[in-house]
Amino acid sequence: MKIFSARKVIAIIIIFAVAGIGIFVYFISHNNKVQPETPVVITKPENLGPTHTVLGQSVQGRNIDVYTYGNGKTRIVLVGGIHGGYEWNTVVLAYQFIDYFDANPKIIPANLTVTIIPDANPDGVYKVTGKDGRFTSADVSTNAQVLASGRFNADDVDLNRNFDCKWQPQSTWQSKTVSAGTAPFSEPEAAALRDFLLKENLAVAVFWHSQSGTVYASQCQNGILPETLNTMDAYAKASGYPAVKTFDAYATTGGADDWLASVNIPAFTVELKTHDTVEWQQNLAGVSALFEYYK
């Protein structure tokens, strides 16, 4: 048998090693050419639509719905229907804004989050319309007593007298004495609204009511917040409603917007001119002015 010398063995090993390295380098370079790195592309749809949640239930178990648009740090809340079916047009106005934002999502500046609570008193709305959720003007009762009863929740409490600002067990509506509940936030609707608004880190809250055609500032023991005046004036100037610092037609206690003033959150009330119109262009101009103010 032929015996290879040590030199030949070493030479053979070197040849095989060099050949192996060459094959490995070729494989790596060839593989990189045929399988280039795929770039990662992140896309974000322009309109994800609103986020729909439920902030709580009414006395009779109806949902209090919340619709939220945008994800900016500055948060605005728009509230309709706290006086239920008696002020059913404020609910219609809120739903009209929901439809408008669905169709025009880019109108909301990137730094804003806008939340709409269309109906803060669904039991009161049901008394007047016989409907849960959305309704039309054709569903609204024409009976004056039924309409008046729709102002209150199922416990016959005026929810806009059930908040913790100068609260009393009885309060006033026009020349009438109304129940304000057994304690501040005794009603599930008011308590749910309180909990939601406190966690939102709000810039401002707007409450739609009817029917005096005026914008009113909120205030409690410490008076009117400066930012309340600024935002109220912006909305009023754009919408054409007169701005009034103090509602003085009759004494009221336990108002939702006044309670927000007591916890240093700017808020104001927009009173529509009648109980059956929404004054869309005026209120769109007012809300748009708030967007411009905070943009």
Q: Can you give a write-up of this model?
A:
There is one protein chain. With 295 residues, this protein is α/β, with parallel strands linked by helices. It has one domain: 3-Layer(aba) Sandwich (Aminopeptidase). Helix content is 36%, strand content 18%. The strands form two sheets. An eight-stranded mixed beta sheet has the order 1-2-4-3-7-10-8-9, with helices on both faces. The longest helix is centred in the first third of the chain and has 29 residues, at 6-34. It starts with 5 loop residues before the first helix and ends with a helix.
CATH-assigned homologous superfamily:
Zn peptidases
- Give, in order, the helices and strands: HEEEHEHHEEHEEHEHEH
Largest sheet: 8 strands, mixed
Helix residue percentage: 25-40%
Proportion of residues in β-strands = 15-25%
By CATH reckoning, the class would read Alpha Beta
Q: How much is the radius of gyration in Å? A: 31 Å
How does the overall form come out from the CA principal axes?
globular
- Poorly predicted runs: 9-13, 21-47
Kindly report how far apart the N and C termini lie. Answer: 93 Å
Report the CATH topology name. Answer: Aminopeptidase
Count of helices? Answer: 8
Average pLDDT score: 88
Class inferred from helices and paired strands:
alpha/beta
**Structural domain count:** 1
CATH architecture: 3-Layer(aba) Sandwich
- Number of strand elements: 10
Strand order of the largest sheet: 1-2-4-3-7-10-8-9
